[in-house]
Design a protein that fits this description.
This protein is mostly helical. The protein has 16 helices and no strands. The chain is globular and about 55 Å long.
Amino acid sequence: MGQYVRIQSIQMLTNAGGFASSLFIPILLKQQMGASDFTVGLIVSLFGAAGFLSQYMFGRAADNIGKRLFLLAGLVLSGVAVPLQALASDPMQMAVARFMVGIACGIYPPALLAYTYISKQQMGKSVSFGSLGWGLGTFVAGVFAAYWQVFLASGVMFFFAFLIALGLPPIKEEKLHNVPMFPRAIIKRNLPIYSALLIRHAGASAIWATLPIYISQMGANNLQIGIIYSFNALVQFGVMYNLDKMDSSKAFMSGLVLSAVTFVAYGLVERTGNFWYFIVPQVMIAFSWSFMYVGALKFVAERNAEVATSTGHIGAVIALSGIFGPLIGGIVSGLAGNYTTMMFLSAGITVVAIGIFFFQRDGRRNGKGTN
């Protein structure tokens, strides 16, 4: 198995395992553990907090110490932590389990992305296999009858990814021993991406925290929800695979604009009375996220020698938005008594992100910021 195939296989298996084990957590908490919308949002936020801390710290560590160590350690620990979720019997225990999963699953992504870039792999094509993994994950989550089976299958996928990673050849990398704990220059250099992504994804995370519940209340079962989610993943695979030649700033801005339109589309589905119409915004969000994510990764990888740190910060920003986004979503949904209000609010939040990216990016082009 060649290096290219190994990297793509790791991307696919880890994303499949991570997504399968997360998809139905809101439904499990609400329907079987009696959690409120606020509690669901709080637990999803805790997972985001763990991911933020992990990717922030271990992205820097991968640049300072070496990528391979943290890639392998993260895969092993994820393979252990994910199945342990099956032991949770109440919201408190699930909160602890999700925090452990967030820490474990945040260790390896910065190292994997840096390994991909240093190995001269095309970033868009590489992460597209992660989206293909999301599609596999939705299938796994929808097919198994019991949640413990989903968690076990997810853990197995992480262990297979670890075995594949053992065969990756060494890469020629310069270990950067002086990356500070708070790399101000790196953050300032990439601020247009980090700030806009944080705001947009906070709105998105507020939707994702309760979206499976919303779809289920319109009459969909777990398998049907998995099918609806799979459209997002499969379209992402096709779009990301062909984005490497597009300018990173244009790709990111395109993703922001389309995100705002898509969040409005999510809010309109309820008026149709048919949950299958969720396929439309799922396809739209696949395009918007593909443009945003590949654009963001290319933007920072092309501008920073500290590839693991700068790409790790993208994961940390996504995780950070996953802290307060679900909390906002849970609060708004609970107060409004519906799930559509948050979707329209998220569209407005994304418009703010568009303005921030536009002015910060142009400010740097005009010499007002760090180049």
